[in-house]
Amino acid sequence: MIEDELSERIELSLSYLARCWRSANISGDEEEKKIIQEQYHDLFSFLVKWGWQGYLDPDSQLPEEYMPKEFLENDRYG
After folding, report:
1. Number of folded domains that form the chain
2. Could you tell me which residues come within 8 angstroms of residue 46 by beta carbon, excluding any fewer than 6 positions away?
3. Could you tell me if 78 and 61 are in contact, meaning their C-beta atoms sit under 8 angstroms apart?
4. In sequence order, what DSSP letters do the residues of the chain get, joined into one string?
5. Sign of the C-alpha dihedral, residues 1, 72, 36, 20?
6. Which terminus has fewer CB within 10 Å in the chain: N or C?
7. Tens digit of each residue's pLDDT (9 = 90 or more) over 8-32
8. pLDDT per residue over 33-60, tens digit each?
9. Which structural domain range is residue 52 located in?
10. What pLDDT, on the 0 to 100 scale, is given for residue 78?
């Protein structure tokens, strides 16, 4: 199981990445959106791999069609 402090830091990073993605979306920077989405997916996958059982509030999420597969397949994350 992942330590609480580490999971909290990663959750904050996911929130930050979601804000960056929204900013890139507004500016129309498709390449930046892709990079951010990849980073987001990598961090989320890391959390799931290490047994994270948390919840992501809507502000910490990307739009549904850009969320990781693991998130979409499990209602407990959001």
Report:
1. 1
2. 10
3. yes
4. ---HHHHHHHHHHHHHHHHHHHHHHHHT-HHHHHHHHHHHHHHHHHHHHTT------GGGS--GGGS-HHHHT-GGG-
5. negative
6. N
7. 999 999 999 999 999 999 999 999 9
8. 999 999 999 999 999 899 888 889 999 9
9. 4-77
10. 55
The Cα 68–Cα 76 span in angstroms is: 14
Token couple for 29? 């920077």
Question: How does 13-24 read in b/e, with b if 16+ C-beta sit within 10 Å?
Answer: ebeebbebbeeb
Residue position matching structure tokens 């890391």: 46
Tell me how long the chain is: 78
Six-digit token string for 12: 């904050």
